[in-house]
Design brief:
It is a single chain. By secondary structure, this protein is α/β, with parallel strands linked by helices. It is 21% helix and 22% strand. Strands 7, 8, 9, 17, 18, 19, 20 and 32 form an 8-stranded mixed sheet that branches. Strands 14, 24, 25, 26, 27, 30 and 31 form a 7-stranded antiparallel sheet that branches. It is globular. Keywords: FAD, Flavoprotein, Membrane, Transmembrane, Transmembrane helix. GO terms for molecular function: flavin adenine dinucleotide binding; oxidoreductase activity, acting on CH-OH group of donors.
C-alpha cells in the first residue's frame, strides 16, 4: 500500500492498493479541504492515519482497520475516514522501527512488550538509574494514531485491525460452538491504547485474596495501596462540570495516568443514579468505585484527560523517550527467550531475547545482563514461555520443542469476564445512534472535539456502571462456594450506554436505544492458551472455555432479572418503550440462559495464564516476586500473573502490579 500526494490543485491524498484491493467510489471531504480516495477489499477497509502531509516519495506508512464498523455500525466508517486530516505529527525520538537499527547488543533489562505493564517498567527502571533498558513491541507507535487518541473512536479499533493481534477463540462448547473474536492491543500502550477506558481497581478484598493465594503479604491491599496512588490521578472531566457528589477525591492518587468522570452527560445518567434511591438495599449508590468497596452503582471513571485517552504509552512512555538509557523497538515480534548455562543451583540462566519482523525474516538477538521481563500479556507471555521450552515437558516434546523447565501450569487457568448486551428501545431522539447514522452529525461532533477537546467524542461510550452481588441465600450457594473475593466485590457488572453497542446484533435502521452491557465478574470457568505450532507468528490456540461453569450461567441469568427489576423504578417510566433483541425476548430462566449463549462475547480481560503461587507450590508459573519458577533472569509482569481474575476491569490492577514489580526489581539490583 502507498500513501501518495495527489494533484496539487486538488490538495488530495490518495491511497493506492495492491492486487487484492479494488478502488471504490468513496471520497470524503473534511474541514481543511482534503479529499481522500479510499480503497476497500472484500472485508477490509484500508485507512491511512495522515500524521503529516504525504512525503514526496509516497513512503508514509499505512495502517489497516478491518471491520472498523463492528461495534457501532457501518456508517461508523465515516468517523474514521473523516478524522485523518486532524492527526498530530508523529514523534519517534528513541523509537526504532527495524531491529537492524539497534546499535547496542546488550542491555541490563529487556522488556518484552510495550503494553500496559511494559511501559511502567520502562519508565521506572530508567528513572534516576544507570540501568539500560530495551522495550520490544510488536505493534506500531501510538503517536498520532487518532482512533487511539479520541475516546469515542475507541470501538473502531476492535475487534480486527492493524493495532490488535486479531486473535479468535476456538469454538466455545457452552456458547453453541461459536468462535469469538479476541482482540488484544498491538501498539505502544498495548490494550490500554485500544480498550474502552473504563477504570476500576476492584475491592481491597481482591488483593488480600491474592496475598492469601501466594502466601506473600506484599500483595495485601494495605501494601499495594501506595502503588495504586502512584499510578494514576483524578483530573477534571472534559466539560469541567462540578463533580461534587460524583467522586471521592481522597480515593485517588498523584500518578501519571489521568482518570476523569464522564465529560459529556447523557439522558441516562440522572435516571441511573436517581433509580438507586428507590432500591437502596439491592442497588446502592456508590460514590466512588475506587473506594475499596466496589459494590453499587455510580459514575464511570475513565482513562481520559483533557478529552484524550490516557494510556501507558502517553502517561509512562512518551514523557521519558528522551532518556539516554532507554531504547524502544517497535514493529518487531519476540520469538523466544534463550538460556545459556545454569546457576550453581542448577537453574537455567535466561540471557538472550530472539526477535524478528516476520516469520521468514532474519532473526536477531540481544542480551539482557540482568533480566528479561515478559510483559506480552495473558496471551503473548505464555506463548513465548512455551516457545522457549518452559511449560509441560511432555507436550513441548511432542511438538518438537526441547523442554528447558517443566512448568505444566504455563498457559493454563485462563480466566475472562463473559459479557453480553441487553437492548431497550427508548422514547428519545438523543442517543448517539443518530450520530452513527448521520454523517453530518458525526463530522460536527468530530470538529467540536478537534476545536476544544469537548463534546461526544471527548467521552467514552459508558457514563454509569455498577457492580452487584447475588443475595447470600441464592440457591446456587447451596452447592457452590461463593467465588467472589468477599462482600465488597461484585458477582456481575452493568454498563449503561446511551446508544446501540453492536456485538452480535447490528444497529437497526431506525430508533433510539439504550444498551446495558452485563458481565460475570467473579467467574469460575477457566480455559487455556496453547501453541498452535512452533512458528511464533502463528496465533496460539485460545480457549477461554466461556460459560462452562454452572455458577457463571446462574449469575448471568440473575444479572438479567436483576436489571429488569432496576428498570422498574419510576425514572424509567415512559422513557423505555420496550426490550429489544433475542435477550429482550427471553422471559423464563431457561429462555434467558439460551439467549445468553447466543449473545455472550468477551470483555477482553484475559488473566492468570502464568499465575503467581507460593515459591514452593507445585502449581503456578511465577513466584510472589514474579520470577519464573525454576529459572534465573526471567520474570513475567502483566495480567497473566494474577492468581485469580479480579471483579474489575483489568487495566488498573495491571498498573498496580507493574508498579510493585518495578520496586521488586530495583530492590534486587540496586
Amino acid at each position: 500500500m502507498l500513501l501518495k500526494q495527489g494533484p496539487q490543485d486538488k490538495q488530495s491524498l490518495i491511497l493506492e492498493g495492491d492486487e487484492t484491493c479494488n478502488p471504490v467510489s468513496i471520497s470524503v471531504h473534511v474541514r481543511r479541504g482534503i479529499d481522500m480516495q479510499l480503497l476497500t477489499c472484500s472485508r477490509l477497509v484500508v485507512t491511512a492515519p495522515i500524521t503529516s502531509p504525504a512525503s514526496e516519495d509516497g513512503a508514509d506508512q499505512l495502517n489497516i482497520l478491518p471491520n472498523a464498523h463492528i461495534i457501532f455500525g457501518s456508517l461508523f466508517f465515516f468517523l474514521i475516514f473523516s478524522t485523518f486530516a486532524y492527526l498530530v505529527p508523529v514523534i519517534l525520538a528513541t523509537v526504532f522501527t527495524d531491529p537492524a537499527q539497534l546499535v547496542k547488543k546488550e542491555y541490563d533489562f529487556v522488556v518484552v512488550g510495550g503494553g500496559t505493564a511494559g511501559n511502567v517498567l520502562a519508565n521506572r527502571l530508567t528513572n534516576g538509574t544507570n540501568f539500560t533498558v530495551l522495550v520490544i513491541e510488536a505493534g506500531i507507535t501510538n503517536d498520532g494514531f487518532l482512533p487511539s487518541i479520541v475516546p469515542f473512536l475507541a470501538p473502531s479499533m476492535t475487534p480486527f485491525s492493524s493495532v490488535t493481534w486479531n486473535f479468535s477463540t476456538v469454538p466455545q462448547a457452552s456458547l453453541g460452538n461459536r468462535t469469538l473474536t479476541y482482540p488484544r492491543g498491538r501498539m505502544l500502550g498495548g490494550s490500554s491504547s485500544i480498550n474502552f477506558m473504563t477504570y476500576t481497581r476492584g475491592s481491597d478484598e481482591e488483593y488480600d485474596r491474592w496475598a492469601n493465594l501466594t502466601g506473600d503479604s506484599g500483595w495485601e491491599w494495605k501494601n499495594l495501596a501506595p502503588y495504586y496512588f502512584k499510578s494514576s490521578r483524578l483530573v477534571p472531566p472534559a466539560d469541567n462540570h462540578n463533580t461534587t457528589g460524583q467522586v471521592d477525591p481522597s480515593a485517588h492518587g498523584d500518578g501519571p495516568v489521568e482518570i476523569s468522570l464522564p465529560g459529556f452527560p447523557t439522558e441516562l445518567d440522572p435516571r441511573v443514579i436517581n433509580a438507586t434511591e428507590k432500591f437502596t438495599s439491592e442497588f446502592p449508590f456508590n460514590l466512588d468505585l475506587q473506594s475499596g468497596d466496589s459494590v453499587g452503582i455510580g459514575f464511570v471513571q475513565s482513562t481520559i484527560g483533557n478529552g484524550e485517552r490516557s494510556s501507558s504509552a502517553t502517561a509512562y512512555l512518551d514523557p521519558v523517550l528522551s532518556r539516554s538509557n532507554l531504547d524502544v523497538l517497535i514493529q518487531t515480534q519476540v520469538t523466544k527467550v534463550i538460556s545459556h548455562g545454569k546457576t550453581s543451583q542448577g537453574k537455567p540462566k535466561f540471557e538472550q531475547v530472539e526477535f524478528a519482523i516476520s516469520s521468514d525474516a532474519s532473526r536477531y538477538t540481544v542480551t539482557a545482563n540482568k533480566e528479561i521481563i515478559l510483559s506480552a500479556g495473558s496471551i503473548g507471555s505464555p506463548q513465548i514461555l512455551l516457545l522457549s521450552g518452559i511449560g509441560n515437558s511432555t507436550t513441548l516434546s511432542d511438538m518438537g520443542i526441547e523442554p528447558i523447565v517443566d512448568l505444566p501450569d504455563v498457559g493454563q487457568h485462563l480466566q475472562d469476564h463473559p459479557i453480553m448486551a441487553n437492548y431497550f428501545v427508548l422514547n428519545s431522539n438523543q442517543s448517539f445512534d443518530n450520530a452513527l447514522r448521520n454523517t453530518n452529525i458525526s463530522a460536527t461532533d468530530l470538529e467540536l472535539w478537534q476545536t476544544n477537546r469537548s463534546g461526544l467524542f471527548a467521552d467514552a461510550p459508558v457514563n454509569t456502571m455498577g457492580f452487584l452481588r447475588l443475595p447470600s441465600n441464592a440457591s446456587i450457594f447451596e452447592n457452590v462456594t461463593d467465588p467472589s473475593a468477599g462482600p465488597k466485590s461484585g458477582h456481575f457488572e452493568w454498563l449503561f450506554v446511551d446508544g446501540f453497542i453492536t456485538a452480535v446484533q447490528t444497529l437497526p435502521d431506525t430508533g433510539n436505544f439504550m444498551t446495558v452491557e452485563m458481565a460475570v465478574v467473579s467467574p469460575l470457568s477457566h480455559g487455556s492458551v496453547t501453541l498452535n505450532s512452533t512458528d511464533p507468528f502463528d496465533n496460539p490456540i485460545i480457549d477461554p472455555n466461556f460459560f462452562s461453569d454452572p455458577f457463571d450461567q446462574y449469575a448471568m441469568v440473575e444479572a438479567v432479572k436483576s436489571l429488569r427489576r432496576f428498570l422498574e423504578a419510576p425514572e424509567w417510566n415512559d422513557f423505555i418503550l420496550g426490550r429489544y433483541g433475542f435477550v429482550g425476548d427471553a422471559n423464563t430462566d431457561e429462555e434467558i440462559l439460551e439467549a445468553a449463549k447466543k449473545a455472550i462475547v468477551t470483555i477482553w480481560h484475559p488473566t492468570s495464564t502464568a499465575r503467581m503461587s507460593p515459591e514452593n507450590a507445585s502449581w503456578g508459573v511465577v513466584d510472589p516476586n514474579l520470577r519464573v519458577k525454576g529459572t534465573f533472569g526471567l520474570r513475567v509482569v502483566d495480567a497473566s500473573v494474577f492468581p485469580r481474575i479480579p471483579s474489575a476491569h483489568t487495566v488498573a490492577p495491571v498498573y498496580i502490579v507493574a508498579e510493585r514489580a518495578a520496586d521488586l526489581i530495583l530492590s534486587e539490583w540496586c
